[in-house]
Amino acid sequence: MSSDYKIILLNGAAEELFGIEEKNAIDKHFLLSVKDEKLFEQINAIVDSKFNINKVEQVKYGDKYYDVTITPIKNYKSEISDILLVFHNITEFKELDQAKDDFISIISHEFKTPLTSIMMGTSMILEEKIGAINDKQRSTLVAIEEESEKLTELVNELIELTKIESGKEMYNFKCCSIFGIAQNTVKPLYNIANEKGVNLTNTIDEDMPGVYADPEKITWVLNNLITNALKYTDAGDDITISASVDGDFMQISVKDTGAGIPKEYKDKIFDKFFHVQNDDEFEIKGTGLGLAVVKEIVEAHGGKVWCESDIDIGSNFMFTLPICDERG
Ligand code: ADP
Predict the structure, then answer these.
(1) Which DSSP symbol is given to 130?
(2) d(CA 256, CA 232)
(3) Residue 248 burial (CB < 10 Å; 0-12/13-18/19+)?
(4) Which among 60, 62, 80 has a CA at the least distance from the CA of 70?
(5) What residues are paired with 246 via a beta bridge?
(6) 227 C-alpha to center of ligand 1: Å?
(7) CA of 279 to the centre of ligand 1 (A)
(8) pTM confidence score
(9) Which residues of 167-198 are buried (b: 16+ CB within 10 A; e: fewer)?
(10) Chain segment 294-308, per-residue pLDDT in tens
């Protein structure tokens, strides 16, 4: 396609995909043949940005999914002269991915009921409601209880993630106070911080503008970030929650002075099931799903989430949410 979006070449597969013949499409505007305004906007944005980027977008035509690679081609004056679009049919991968998600979702739900029975049974025996137990039995039962709690956390996070990824999760967006959300989230965590000797501080001001968000989901996000910070800090460390206005967005930060994350893992930690490998630490402290869910939720709000971190200095997890005028 030329820089004024006229088609120059269309191969056989593209003719079939768009149901047009090359001879009828040549020299005509992209939108006359490929009637996809959303994709056209993406192409336009790349051309306007003047950057030499090679961008991949995902589109769905009928029941087929395609990865579209958009590559601007520059002439000797570094001006964009042509634009190359490559459509890669990924329907098979998508279907496999869907089958995997369905499987995880079914398995997670099937795990829930027996897990609840295990936990209830264990706690009844521990409370000696069925009879007296000796110390050895008690310590074994405590271990069973702890492992069941970890499994329950994994199952709950898996259910949450599959719900969100499948688009079945409903969001209840409204204009709400980030001060209120932060206060409610932090309150039950002060005790845990105190027990650990960690100083947990919420500096978010009551006068901050409102955010357009689902308060329940953002409570989940904040809770997850603070719980993580609590996992990777020790006595004497600080965890500070703050918020600042950045243009049309509110930037919320959960900063800790804990273990930190190696630079090479800074982005990877948002992937599913990712744990930072630690030589002197064999115990895995969580499921590796929390930050993947955090990312999904924040992005569903039109915000972004990222992390700055230095080993042994600490981590700062930040995310943005759109600001709204009135407050709920
Ligand atoms: P997990 O359930 O393992 O905590 P997450 O997705 O929440 O899973 O986090 C992924 C990984 O990111 C963690 O295993 C840990 O290695 C790292 N991480 C997350 N938060 C922090 C933090 N505040 N300080 C240090 N490492 C962190």
Answers:
(1) S
(2) 8
(3) exposed
(4) 80
(5) 249
(6) 9
(7) 16
(8) 0.68
(9) eebeeebebbbbbbbbeebbeebeeebeebeb
(10) 999 999 899 999 999
Residue 34 neighbours by CB distance under 10 Å: 24
> What is the full DSSP assignment across 193-233?
HHHHT-EEEE---TTSPEEEE-HHHHHHHHHHHHHHHHHT-
Out of 161, 269, 306, give the residue to mutate to test ligand 1, the one with the largest number of ligand atoms within 8 Å of its CB: 269
What CA–CA distance (Å, rounded) separates 246 from 283?
Answer: 39
Q: Under the phi-then-psi rule, with left for phi > 0, alpha for psi from -120 to 50, and beta for the rest, what region is 19?
A: left
Per-residue pLDDT tens over the stretch 55-82: 777 888 888 899 888 888 888 887 888 8
Please count the residues of the chain. Answer: 328
Extended strands (E) in the chain: 55-61, 64-74, 80-89, 174-176, 199-202, 210-213, 238-246, 249-256, 305-310, 314-324
Starting at the edge strand that comes first in sequence, how are the strands of the sheet with 55-61 ordered? 55-61, 64-74, 80-89
- Amino acid at the residue 271: D
Count other Cβ atoms within 10 Å, centred on residue 325: 8
Q: How many CB atoms lie within 10 A of CB 131?
A: 6
Rounded distance from Cα 32 to ligand 1 centre (Å): 49
- Tokens 């308060």 correspond to 215
Pocket-forming residues, ligand 1, beta carbon under 6 Å: 228-229, 232, 256, 258-259, 261, 269, 274-276, 285-292, 315
